[in-house]
Automatic annotation (TrEMBL):
The keyword Magnesium belongs to this UniProt entry's keyword annotation: no
Domain OmpR/PhoB-type: 133-230
Protein name: Stage 0 sporulation protein A homolog
Keyword Cytoplasm appears in the UniProt entry: no
Primary role: May play the central regulatory role in sporulation. It may be an element of the effector pathway responsible for the activation of sporulation genes in response to nutritional stress. Spo0A may act in concert with spo0H (a sigma factor) to control the expression of some genes that are critical to the sporulation process.
Coiled-coil regions listed: none
One Pfam family named in its UniProt record: Response_reg
Source organism: Alkaliphilus pronyensis
Length: 230
């Protein structure tokens, strides 16, 4: 596999230099941008493996950039790690709901950023390695783990990678209560330094997509513990 390409978008020059230096030292090919519009233009012509995106950008902010990336054909699954100096939980949750894969709050540890980048890229590498077709079923929900397809009553549901993995582990452990910490560890693939609220955000999104947000037919919340498939 060739050198992984990463685009770092931040309007603070010293942050760009710090991240670029450390990523290149760890074998990545790094591109930088200090502007949201330039980021979109760059991604329209240049292929990268992951984007590190600052929330507070001049003009088009990181949330809008994230939203636009997810609307571009071929970039809807591009991994995005969001950087934010904001402390409000709602901003972090909004970023995740718009399609960001992860977030880090400034000031952050470069080692932590590296760990998260490597974990996201590792998941991408591991995904195609499933060899045996396996169809999981729960009532009207059907999941093909080889084709990476989920259907409800025969209709395909478009899930993100994390939503798919969350649903998969819940179905494979049907009837068992899985804690938020266990889900973080299994789905994110490393010791997550953020809040278990991340799991709740993705579960809520997943429920909405499979039509379970009102009926509660598939995923049950176990208050104070985690989730299970009924």
């Amino acid at each position: 596999m060739g050198q992984r390409k990463i685009l770092v978008v931040d309007d603070e020059e010293h942050i760009l230099e710090l991240i670029k230096f450390n990523l290149e030292k760890n074998g990545f090919e790094v591109y930088t941008s200090d502007d949201g519009e330039k980021c979109i233009e760059f991604l329209s012509s240049q292929e990268v493996d992951l984007v590190v995106l600052d929330l507070m950008l001049p003009g088009m902010d990181g949330l809008e950039v994230c939203k636009k990336i997810r609307r571009i054909d071929g970039l809807d699954k591009l991994p995005i790690i969001m950087l934010t100096a904001r402390g409000e939980e709602t901003d972090r949750i909004l970023g995740l709901e718009l399609g960001a894969d992860d977030y880090l709050t400034k000031p952050f540890s470069v080692r932590e950023l590296l760990a998260r980048i490597k974990a996201v890229l590792r998941r991408i590498e591991d995904t195609p390695r499933i060899k045996n077709s396996k169809v999981l079923r729960v009532k009207d929900l059907e999941m093909d783990t080889e084709k990476h397809v989920v259907m409800i009553k025969g209709k395909v549901v478009d899930l993100t990678l994390k939503e798919f993995e969350l649903l998969k582990i819940l179905i494979e452990n049907r009837g068992k209560v899985l804690s938020r910490n266990l889900l973080l560890d299994e789905v994110w693939g490393y010791e997550y330094f953020g809040e278990t609220r991340t799991v709740d955000v993705h579960i809520r999104h997943l429920r909405k997509k499979i039509g379970d947000d009102e009926s509660g037919e598939y995923i049950e919340t176990i208050r104070g513990v985690g989730y299970k498939i009924k």
